[in-house]
From TrEMBL:
Its main location: cytoplasm. The keyword Cytoplasm applies. Enhancer of SUMO conjugation. Increases SUMO conjugation to proteins by promoting the: binding of E1 and E2 enzymes, thioester linkage between SUMO and ube2i/ubc9 and transfer of SUMO to specific target proteins which include hif1a, pias, nfkbia, nr3c1 and top1. Has no effect on ubiquitination. PROSITE patterns: RWD. The lineage of its organism: Eukaryota, Metazoa, Chordata, Craniata, Vertebrata. This is RWD domain-containing protein 3. Pfam families: RWD. Residues 39-50 have a biased composition (Low complexity). It comes from Cairina moschata (Muscovy duck). Residues 28-83 are annotated as: Disordered.
Length: 360
């Protein structure tokens, strides 16, 4: 029977226990591997190196975001809500970028409540908004001036449409202010001009109006309007349908109140009529709002503009016509009831000419 014995190593201690080979001394001088056991010398070959730990893989984190308040290049700044804040506004490809940037700047400048209100944004009709400012006049009294601007799609190459209203100014004074603003707008053609026009009227209103403004309340305004019947106009509209009736009615009432228009919103079966009386410039503003605002919903429930509206009549209020003192919503069960409403207002001829054909 053979017994196997390992060959003696040169590093084994001598009888006196003082001998140590060169390989053992070298191994002791080297730093120990994490796997080496303490107190056990290594001999008989090169030392093994402990495997390096794997490098941690970067975990996918959220995409870097721009700091708050920073505007990314190529995107238009946020616009104020339209029509009292129903939804955010989006500009189409056909919309003028200069007009959108100017509107964003105006919203930042006139940031007080109701100071800047976007009324409508359309890819085909442009932007309509109102700016309200307090202006000093001859007697250093504050005048609340309401400026309505309609910027066409090709603005500023085309002049904006402007309408001026104020409870403290006469209609003639409002017309003078409007004419002067349009004169100034021609000097700024092909460049953003709304802010310049607002600044100009703030500095020059006292020179534009011919006489000091008089502060008047609603009753004096109404009595003055009644004494100038030739300045009051009447508008009769026909709507094909209303899908979101409650919201639609509320919007029409708000527009009539804001523009100081009186009249009726009348329902009779499938017939829907809007009869308005008031200043002609206010009636024009109403038509702009009616045609450019998303006031109803389509068959899929998406907001849409009123495309099925027709103007039946637009004329001056005559002496035989009754003036409405408020705007009311009324429903009629029969055509006879609707006819009596027109006759009571002295509008029998208007009824017979335009309403019966709607039943055919």
């Amino acid at each position: 029977m053979w017994l196997w014995r390992p060959a003696p190593c040169c590093c084994m201690a001598s009888a006196e226990g003082t001998g140590r080979c060169s390989a053992a001394r070298v191994a002791a001088a080297r730093p120990r591997s994490p796997r080496a056991r303490p107190g056990r010398p290594f001999c008989g070959g090169a030392a093994r190196r402990a495997p390096l730990p794997p490098s941690p893989r970067p975990r996918p984190g959220p995409a870097p975001t721009a700091p708050r308040g920073h505007r990314r290049p190529g995107r238009a700044a946020a616009l104020p809500p339209a029509g009292g804040g129903a939804a955010s506004l989006r500009a189409g490809a056909a919309m003028s970028g200069q007009a959108l940037e100017e509107l964003s700047a105006l919203a930042a400048i006139y940031c007080e409540p109701d100071a800047c209100e976007v009324l409508a944004v359309s890819e085909t009709h442009g932007i309509t908004f109102r700016i309200q400012i307090n202006v000093k006049e001859l007697l250093d009294t504050d005048i609340l001036l309401k400026l309505l601007f309609h910027l066409p799609v090709n603005y500023p190459s085309t002049l904006p449409e402007i309408s001026v209203n104020s409870d403290q100014l006469t209609r003639a004074q409002c017309t003078d202010v409007k004419d002067k603003l349009l004169e100034q707008a021609k000097k700024h053609l092909s460049e953003p001009m709304v802010h310049e026009l607002v600044l100009w009227i703030q500095e020059n209103l006292k020179y534009v109006i011919k006489q000091p403004a008089t502060v008047c309340n609603e009753k004096t305004t109404l009595s003055k309007a009644e004494s100038t019947e030739d300045a009051i106009w009447m508008l009769l509209l026909h709507l094909d349908h209303m899908r979101a009736k409650a919201k639609y009615v509320k919007t029409v009432e708000k527009w009539a109140s804001d523009l100081r228009l009186t009249g009726r919103l009348m329902f009779m079966g499938k017939i829907i009529l809007i009869l308005l009386q008031g200043d002609r410039s206010n009636i024009k503003e109403y038509l702009i709002l009616q045609k450019t605002s998303k006031v109803d919903v389509d068959s899929s429930g998406k907001k849409c503009k009123e495309k099925m509206i027709s103007v039946l009549c637009e004329t001056k209020v005559q002496a035989q016509h009754k003036r409405f003192h408020m705007f009311e919503v009324k429903e009629y069960s029969t055509l006879n009831e609707l006819q009596k409403e027109f006759e009571a207002a002295g509008l029998a001829t208007l009824f017979s000419e335009f309403v019966p054909p709607l039943l055919k």
